[in-house]
Amino acid sequence: MRIFISYRRSCSWGLAKLIYDELTARSFDVFMDLEQIRGGDFEEIIHQQIDSCDYFLPIFSKDTFCLERIHNPDDWIRKEMEYALAKEKSIVPILAEGFPQLEKAKLPVSLLPMVKTDGIKFYKDYFREGIKKLIEHYLIDKLVSGSVPLDVLDHFIFLEEDWIDFEDYLIATFECEADEKVVLEDAIRTIAYDPTIGTWTSIADVDREEILTDYCGKVLLPLPTGHANRGRVRIAI
Fold first, then answer.
1. Does residue 139 contact residue 147 with C-beta atoms inside 8 Å?
2. Which of 31, 102, 178, 228 has the lowest tally of Cβ within 10 angstroms?
3. Is pLDDT of 204 > 80?
4. Contact 188, 203 (CB under 8 A)
5. Dihedral sign from CA coordinates of 116, 83, 14, 139
6. What distance in Å separates the CA atoms of residue 222 and residue 177, rounded to the nearest whole number?
């Protein structure tokens, strides 16, 4: 799970930093340029980070769409948004308290898809509620492996049936269907991982291999064949 926070420093730094701190404390991998760019080609780094992110979070504050700045093709906020749209990233706008109703006719045409996307309103007195909604409504379904690399995770999750002691496991059969943005293997991995050991909070002092071996759900191979995004799978829990 990788998240890119896009914000205008003159008006959104405070909210961006609060969201950054909350998400990183819950073990999300979050990129915020003020925190992590210390040198190198700024544009190249920004593009690399957007390329690799799962979610693009633009923060919309009172002056984010300042007409003088947003109509400048070299404005960095505009460039980040246009690049995220071009890369068809999953976009979740964060609407800061006081964000005005936009006159869309005055905005660059290239940004109209961005401002038409549903967002989450963040209020000063209900910040925690905003974070909770962001995680539960948008991020939690993508949190499959946390900080565990997929090649490591898959070593423990996808197993031949002969490796399973059926006396120690409940075997559940799932009819799975993934949407057009997710391959079936990702959906199956989520079903095995999330209900057993999945978490979006940081857990210290645990033996990762022991947890994955003893408690994580096991997808019994072979995987279904045929339709690329639909199939029946058995998971040992």
1. no
2. 228
3. no
4. no
5. positive
6. 17
Rounded Cα distance between 72 and 93, Å, is 21
| Mean pLDDT within 91-96 | 94
Tokens 């690329």 -> residue? 228
In Å, what is the CA distance from 25 to each residue of 198, 200, 203, 219, 229? 16, 9, 10, 30, 34
**Chain CA centroid to CA 121, Å:** 18
Q: What is the mean pLDDT of the chain?
A: 85
pLDDT-derived band of residue 229, with 50, 70 and 90 as boundaries? confident
Q: What percent of the chain has pLDDT over 90?
A: 43
pLDDT (mean) for 98-115: 90
List b or e across 194-208, with b for residues whose CB sees 16 or more CB atoms inside 10 angstroms. Answer: bebbbebeeeeeeee
Q: What is the mean pLDDT of residues 184-213?
A: 76
Distance in angstroms (rounded) separating the CA atoms of residues 119 and 47 = 23
Quick check: 191 and 164 in contact, CB under 8 A?
A: no
| Alpha carbons 124 and 111: distance in angstroms, whole number | 27
Round to whole Å and give the CA distance between 124 and 96: 9
Tokens (6 digits) for 44: 């190249």
The residues facing 4 across adjacent strands are 31, 56
Report pLDDT digits (tens) over 136-183: 778 764 434 455 667 777 888 888 888 888 888 999 999 988 877 777
